[in-house]
What does this fold into?
Amino acid sequence: MSKTKSKSLWDAKIVSHALLDCVRKLDPRMMMRNPVMFVVEVGSVITSVLLVRDAMRHVPGFGFDLQITLWLWFTVLFANFAEAMAEGRGKAQADTLRKAKSDTLANRLLPDGRTEVVPGSKLRSGDLVIVSAGEVIPGDGDIIEGIASVDESAITGESAPVIREAGGDRSAVTGGTRVLSDQIKVKISSNPGETFLDRMIALVEGAERQKTPNEIALNILLAGLTVVFLLAVVTLQPFAIYSKASQTIFVLVSLLVCLIPTTIGALLSAIGIAGMDRLVQHNVLAMSGRAVEAAGDVNTLLLDKTGTITLGNRQAAEFVAAPGVSNDQLADAAQLSSLPDETPEGRSIVILAKEQYGLRGRELGSPQAQFVPFSAHTRMSGVNFDGRVIRKGAVDAIQRYLSENSSYLPKEVQATVETIARAGGTPLVVAENGRALGVIHLKDIVKGGIKERFAQLRAMGIRTVMITGDNPLTAAAIAREAGVDDFLAQATPKDKMDLIKKEQAEGKLVAMTGDGTNDAPALAQSDVGVAMNTGTQAAKEAGNMVDLDSNPTKLLEIVEIGKQLLMTRGSLTTFSIANDVAKYFAIIPAMFAGTFPVLNALNIMHLATPQSAVLSAVIFNALVIIALIPLALRGVKYRPMNAEALLRRNLLLYGVGGVIVPFIGIKIIDVIIRVVGLA
Amino acid sequence: MTFNGWFQILLYFAVILLLTKPMGVFMAKVFNRERTWLDGVMRPLERLLYRLTKIDEEREMSWKEYAVSMLLFSAVSMLVLYLLQRAQQWLPLNPQKFSGVAPDLAFNTAASFTTNTNWQFYSGEQVMSYLTQMAGLAYHNFASAAVGMALAVAFIRGIARKEAKAIGNFWVDTTRAILWILVPLSIVSSIVLISQGVIQNNKPYTTVKLVEPQQVPRAGQDGKPVVGPDGKPVMDTVTEQTIANGPIASQEAIKELGTNGGGFLNANSAHPFENPTPFSNFFEMVLIFLIPAGFTYTLGRMTNSQAHGWAVFAAMAILFFAGVTTAYWAEARGNPLLTATDQRASTMQPGGNMEGKEVRFGIANSALFATITTDASCGAVNGFHDSYTPLGGMVPLANIMLGEIVFGGVGAGMYGMLIFVVLSVFIAGLMVGRTPEYLGKKIEAYDVKMAMLYVLIFPLAILVLSGISSLTSSGLAALGNSGPHGLTEILYAFTSGTGNNGSAFGGLGPNRWYNLSMGFTMLVGRFLMIIPMLAIAGNLAQKKSVPPSPGTFPVTTPLFTGLVVGVIIIMGALTFFPALSLGPILEHLLAGAGKTF
It folds into this structure.
């Protein structure tokens, strides 16, 4: 939960928009998409027509019928309001994005090398553009020449500029971001209307929202239940006529609306929109709702070691001196050789020497000091200082260096090197003036708290697999320390792909993160592929989510959001159905107690009058929608635990709770109605 | 309620519990075509049948082929039974010289027996020849039961198989169900029943002289008493009685074993020739639950999750005890209006509401029988449900309304229950934060659609037809009672028909409307519901299976059992509560206030 751009739930602007929208959504063509609420709307129309007719004929009981009709309309409006609220939050986000899209001008490169100025919206895939410092990048693409620092805050909300350069995995740029320094040549990769920004706006706005598989299935269930209750209510009239206790249409429609699952029907689409919105707040863009659902279903997480499980860099953990060399001596040489070394590894050596051996960082002020940087040729780095020639590097590099100086690596040092390697560390040998001093133990540092996260995932039935380029020995050691279930060592892109296919063949869903172009096939193959925003365009195209923060650990949160989305739907469905029990006990005795006073035995809530009983049930049914909007938008509380425990908890809360709450709610409303004198 | 009564109920349950595993293992072996000790006799016979009918026993079918084969088989069987009834006067084995059965009744009966309903709008001993009883009705008792078992096995295969197109061969499953399970068990059971005094012969009816002549009112053409010129009913003196004979024992065994329920005699299992002793009563009740209970074990075995099988068994057991406790309590406490009568149980009388019950069975065994016969889709009766107290009579009605999934009909109970399991898993499964999975199979839109269709057809047929009957003159004309009791009679008839139970509440006479509408609803309740069920089986079979993990929905725990029970009760109650509140519930409350119907 790094940074959530959380808005207050009842933001005044969003609410006022939603109030307008909920009336606009009464259009039957829009209502039809939601079969449950459509039935309520049809019921409201029928009672409205009858109400007008009864008013003209001065039929008694007008006050009651009017109230019923009004509350039926409120039920529909509340449902629309819930949806509008969820959409409103996305729309606010989209407006911010649209500002970034304000039409930019592009310097398009012509075949003859000259440039022409065209509007950014005219650019097509394949066009080449030049973007200089201070200019806005006119469209999505890859840098093919140059390097630049880019301000991507318009999209990511992150103000620190990022480096983008041609070649490699950091070549992608996004339209709407601003170049801060240097000049780059960009090959545009998207056509007008299909840019990342366009897609992002459409996504957060919910314009392209299609129902997800689970949502479709749930909708079918709700429609089916609606038909069952329609049958139960419609056929109740013949039975009532047979019993000489026929009912008014107002009461029958009330019964129907109370029975059909309006609570979940009203909130279902809001839950889906809010789920996407929660992802956006985590700076993750899902290209489809389907991907969010799939995230909840994931069985296997493929996690890159570096950056996800371990901190990006190795750190010095220990100095092991060669025979006849003191640790102080080794630490001193190691620190000296690392002082000018700005890499995190180098810095960690300086810090370790300082902490363990009290060696202060010294200034290598003297002009004789000569730093030897790491080169691919020697594969060593070091320093020449005061006649001391210090080198450090991998064991084979130092060995070669020593033999060149007609020296050799002592057996003891060799043994130390092997021990460290076996434990998953990286041994770095230090030599001074042709003599091996000892070994620095560089270790991968596992991120704090990650082991506990993995344990939680395991409890939820999710397997974690660490992917690393390290040798199996190193990989196994880190895997053990991090507590992942499995690892894939010396992984090539093909290995990764094979692993995904193997898992999928077993019926499992796989999630992974990736950024490089060579990750693209695996990202496309996986069920949830989260591309890093810093990654290449190819990776972003292949995945079905993009993490704007480029934080691979985010995968864990994405899974949680997916699960939360499904749980919210299930919980509210259960709650909605469980509610019906109380409504029966309110309405059935009210319908027939007039003819058969003995049926008052079923009036276990002791509701005042038949009218107030029916009205209370209808009002409760409408108000519960409003009461549950926050829950629908925020999602039910997520706790990492196994399915059995989760099910028990949620069944108790929403199933048993769903039976009890309406008994209390309806009774309270009945008391209020009686006090106010509405019925 | 007495200690003795409860002891017998618990003893009965203990016997079922003991038989569940051996029966389940045996059925799994039969349908998996594994070796059994009956192979020596049955295998040659089976091969011969396939050779004669040119059936390739190795060829498996998709769900659609399976459904078409089943429909074809049932349609032909139904037509044969119809023709047999219509032509029985020209055919042999008709010592009583019964005439052909009327078209609407013949249709009703053909539909009834083909669908395993065995609703009877006739008195067997007065309408059906021995040939019709044996070759027509008893044949269907075997065939419809075998079809039900085949369908359940096909459904279980759908759950168990992975990425498969086929769910078995209908002809093989049906044949094996008959040869290995139904025929051997029926033979043994018939002999046991004969030992208790159930008759088995082809003789003409016996006429005996009454010890004491009786005065009875003369009945006219319309069945009503003939009234003389003095305004009093005309009385006839009767000196002799005709006692029905017939091949009863052979039909009695399959009647219970196949949860058919169609009695040879009108009085069904209340008649001493069908059910003479308390032991025969106990034995018949065991036969009713034998196969359905065994199927829970077969489910566990074929899906490699025995714990799931037992969890389903437990859900059924809970509903069974809920039913029998209510029925026994309601009947044992007697009729609240008979304040002057001693209704207490004692060594001299069973006590409670004995109207319509056999003295040799008493309250406990009558309430138990009524519960079992409607838990399963059997429909045999050893008492008159119409005469039960309102709440006692509501138990059989509610049992059928829940879908006869408390052990249920042979096969039909299993797949009916599994549909509810699928729905429960879907509704609650989302709450664990995953796409709901049932034994590794994801439950998706198509499955939910078909399951809802299955769930929908049932109340659709019952409520619409009951609604029509409660308003139309032809619906009301056949009614024996008025008020809420009359409504219960209508509801019960259509519930029993659609649920393919076949037990009659009573009090509802046959007429053309009921013959046709009941025949129609029985066909709907069987075949229209089977098709979506098979569609789910076919769809599940072709899915990948997700290996279980701590994150998957648990289907083996008490929590799951509780959930399924909850969903079944809530779904049933929500659908039928309004109708029930104007029927038995209202009648119960009115009876408490001193008003009867």
User: Anything to note?
Assistant: Chain B touches chain A through 67 residues (CB under 8 Å). The mean pLDDT of chain B is 92. The CA atoms of residues 424 and 566 of chain B lie 9 Å apart. The two ends of chain B are 26 Å apart (CA to CA).
